[in-house]
Design brief:
Blueprint (H helix, E strand, L loop, with lengths): L3 H13 L5 H17 L4 H11 L16 H9 L4 H12 L15 H12 L24 E6 L6 E8 L10 H9 L7 H7 L3 E8 L8 E9 L1 H5 L1 H18 L3 H16 L6 H9 L24 H8 L7 E7 L9 E2 L6 E6 L12 H6 L31 E5 L3 E7 L7 E9 L7 H21 L1 H5 L2 E8 L2 E9 L3 H13 L5 H17 L5 H13 E2 L4 H4 L8 H10 L3 E10 L3 H15 L2 E2 L9 E2 L30 H9 L1
Parallel strand pairs: 1-5, 9-14, 14-15
Antiparallel strand pairs: 1-7, 2-4, 2-5, 3-4, 6-7, 8-9, 10-12, 10-14, 11-12, 13-16
Helix pairs in contact: 1-6, 7-13, 15-18, 15-21, 17-22
Amino acid sequence: NNALEGTLDRLSCFLTDPLMDADCTDRELNAVDSEFKSKLQSDSRRSFVILKSATNQRHAFSKFGTGNNKTLRESAKKHGLDLREELLKFHRKYYSSDIMKLIVVGNHSLDQLSEWAVSMFSGVESKGNTKPIEHSHPLGQNELGRVLRYESVGKHNQLKFVFAIPEVKSTYKQNPYMYICSLLGRSDEGSLLLYLKRLGLATSILSYYYGLDYDNFNLFIIHVYATPEGIGRYSEIAHALFAYLQMLTETGPQKWYHDELRTICEIDYRFFVQLDAEDWRDIILSNIHNEFLEPEHVIYKLRSINLFDPQLISKQLQYLTPTNYTLLIQTKKHKDVECSSKEEFYGIKYDLRDLPSSLTSDMVIDRDLVAKFHMPAPNAYLPKSLSVDKPENTSAVVVATEPTLLWMNDKLEVWFKRDDQFFVPRGSINLSFNVPEILQTPRNYVTALLYTWYVEDVLRREFYSARLASLYFKVYLGDAKITITTSGLNDKLSNLVCDIAKRLKNLTIDSLIFDMQKISLDDGYTNIIYDRALDQASYHLSCLNDAPGWHYSMVAKEVNSLTISDLQTFADHLFEKTYVKMIMAGNFYEQDALDLAKQIEDIIDYIPLPIHMRTTSVVQLFDPGYYIFQSPIADKDCKDNAIICQFQCTLGVDKFQNS
């Protein structure tokens, strides 16, 4: 915090009088090129890059967005240019105070922060609005109605429906796309995703528009994470998507649904969890260049929906039609299509051609399909009470630094920590089921992992309304434990935990979901070798440090042989013998924790796991010395490398062992 003033001084000098030493040019070029090469095998970066190939190549959006040796050093040499001089020209032309915004976040007073900002940055020259403006759309009539197929590095199967829409900055108060995105992402009855899942065509849907920086255009993307079967039947997915959009259009914007979204946004904003300085900066940064934004709404994304404007929502739906999109299809190898074109910078193989007219201008909306879709039911998990028992003199409250063990027997432990510091209507409840058989063999482990993936899929669909009501949950595998974590507004949180426990106790494995999750798990293990070198190194380090456990190379071999019978047997016997740990923290009372523990014990109805069979997590301690673990990068096209150096500090360990 004491360094903020000096940091601002150095930053302001960079804007007003940058050194740009000639000696530093080559070094910075190498840094830029190194960063570029580190993303060459990143499928997420490649997906963004290939989108540019589907747009108008004369539009600024289509241009290469980063830099490398070829576009900077070699290009400058080819054209006889001094690269440093070009940098200075760029700075002199574009670095204008008229197109700059300054964000300063700190715990100094506003007067102090303002004084530093004015005194240090007033010297930034005003050159007028030097920002280049594009008046056309990157997806014009010549670019719409096409399909771009491209090859992925890893095993990914994705469809992107890219729609040409106007700028969205001016609609931030109404935020019509939040209404639309919320419905497209649902996985409950009547939703598009549930329909596609039941056909085995897709696993999830994500929709979004690009950033608010664009002045005269934007892109709305409906991102379908497909199965291999879904890639081959992409036309069915397209017909289902436009049938669902037709249902939304005919049903019309529903105020009750908008009000549900608005209620949750206002609650989240009212009881917002404090962020650190970097997160605050990023939130403000994402909105700060919106000229329509009123100063008091600078952090409006925290309450993302406000005014109900049914006409505006209907208007935006009119852009999501079969005649106003381009389709991107990503998979590792396309059937019946040769990707003979190659993107210039990342070497992405692709094929670009017109979509069949049956998916564009001649598409006929299937009325029977429209009838299968409908709006969701009202949200039963919306809180009815936001009350907090807050003492009059909070400064006199003695803050507990750790949870209290309320109850322990041979079946469970109950830990509790009341919110005695923040006094907000939030809480968290975690359940951990100790199942030692999980770690006995790689096959047991991967069966348990597939179980958590399967359960996550089921819960996301059946408890989607809970997630919309700011109740969050996750089921994951850690060591020899299946853990359920929940958090959010406390009013209905215990209800959610009981509902999840009941669902897991009576779980019948569906063959379609089993097949999709098994494919996803297999793809996940396959794609590990395409992760960044740093991510792979971090994984190896965690394997060396944690015990017991199985390396993915041993576990991955078991995936293909798993059957639905294996998973059903695992689910049926999972809770027969276990030991449960529960911790409740937040706006609750001790009796709430004891009551919930009794309910969980009755729902699961299990026999206790003997104490000698219970497993505990162990951090591996190495004998003094130097150890080197080396692992070659399996992806021969990867030019990335990583080194992680870990120091084992024994002072704390000695204290722990002595205690």
